Amino acid sequence: NKTIDVFADVNNVGVGSTTVTYLTVTGNGATTNNSVSGVVQGQTITVQTGTLAAPTLVSNTYPAVLIAGGTATKVAQYKFVATYGAATINDLTLNVFGSTGSSATTTINATDVASLTVGGVTAPVICNGVCYAKVSGLNISIPAGVAGQTIDVTANLNNVTSATQGGATTRSQVGVVLDKYSYKIGNTVTSDASASYVASNVMVLVASVPTVAAASDTPLGMSSGFAGSGNTEVMKFTVTAGANPMSLKRGIEKTV
Q1: Element (DSSP H or E) covering residue 75
Q2: Residue 78's closest CA among 67, 90, 66, 94?
Q3: Residue 85: half-sphere exposure toward Cβ, Cα within 13 Å
Q4: Given a cut of 60, is residue 26 above it in pLDDT?
Q5: For 32, 117, 186, 256, which has the most beta carbons within 10 A of its beta carbon?
Q6: Is the sign of the CA dihedral 164, 165, 166, 168 positive or negative?
Q7: Are the C-beta atoms of residues 111 and 158 closer than 8 Å to each other?
Q8: How sure is the predictor about 230, in pLDDT bands with cuts at 50, 70 and 90?
Q9: Closest Cα to residue 173, out of 229, 103, 236?
Q10: How many angstroms separate the CA atoms of 213 and 208, rounded?
Q11: CA–CA separation, 231 vs 188, rounded Å?
Q12: pLDDT by residue (tens digit) across 53-78?
């Protein structure tokens, strides 16, 4: 047996055009020298144009939480799905919102978020009516298929300081909004396609994020034997400060 690969250059044809290939074989028998021939139908080829669907937020990957100033924190994950051909993401333009909410056109205190990082590339946040960062030179491949590819966005946060020291503002609401993206499919480049303002979850910026856990000697597993009145110890817990010292003002317990 011999396998023969056949390639063809396809002319410029309309989207949806169908081409059917046929192979006509002629030859002579090695022993009888009799002529032989036959026609074999090949595959059916339908011409399509590669597309990239509008990006969506993977909302449960990075939920709304407290985030600490002075850290690099992942704040959003976007999913891109390509059809009829792989795509390459060249750049993303992301608006940054802050203390006044999640509007796509909100101007924030520029000292909250210093820059954004996508795919190992970092771009500064620039405020000119809208605070944004354009992250270019990404070259992120999106394979064709329903699985798509996710892209993480990391916010590089300034330290939280007092109002007179020029740092980030405590308890600011921080997040990003995907505004535009540029990509390439085959030889076709699409620049600054609208993402229709896909917003991340809203994070709250603080100076330090505490960790609360049950203490090792907390009275667990005691289901009976408590007095009907008086004080009874029911639990112990520990509070560990994050990057900066903090004070515990109150704790809220819930009985079940």
Answers
A1: strand 72-80
A2: 94
A3: 13
A4: yes
A5: 117
A6: negative
A7: yes
A8: low
A9: 103
A10: 16
A11: 74
A12: 999 999 888 998 888 888 899 999 99
* Residue for token pair 């046929």: 22
- E strands of 161-210, at which residues? 172-185, 188-199, 203-206
* Contact indicator for 139, 164 with CB cutoff of 8 Å: no
How buried is residue 78: exposed, middle or buried, by Cβ count under 10 Å (0-12/13-18/19+)? Answer: buried
C-alpha 14/C-alpha 78 separation (Å) is 32
E strand map for 5-49: 18-28, 35-46
List pLDDT tens digits, range 129-182: 788 999 999 999 999 999 999 999 999 998 887 666 666 777 778 889 999 999
Copy the structure tokens of residue 126. Answer: 């620039």
Q: Pinpoint the alpha helices (H) of 79-155.
A: none
145: nearest Cα among 214, 73, 80: 80
Give residue 186's Cα distance to chain centre: 23
Per-residue pLDDT at 76: 95
